[in-house]
Hints:
Distance between the termini: 26 Å
Radius of gyration: 13 Å
Oligomer: single chain
Helix content: 55-70%
Shape: globular
Structural class: mainly alpha
Order of helices and strands: HHHHHH
Largest sheet: none
Amino acid sequence: MSSALAFQLAGDAIEEYVAEHHSADSGVWQNIVPETDWDYEDRDWQAAASDIVNRFNQRLPAGQDIEVPTSAKRASRSKRLIEFQVYLAAKATSLGVSGEISAMEE
Length: 106
């Protein structure tokens, strides 16, 4: 899978989540920080991030599901959603491992 396609699919998964749960931000979610803009607590964001990951996995070819560690979900709560999109895409394509992925998993 190309990184461009993975990036698009990750964005589609996030957009779908936002449309269902934060419809006022649908289409303009890229710079949203869940912790400050939506007041997500840790447990609630972990559930939301898991939902987004599941939506992303549903878009991937069979057998190419990704797993996102709890630490990465926690870290993404205080980052812009576009950074979570980049992270998901990088996980799916195995690109950017030393940059985008490690930044979320610290």
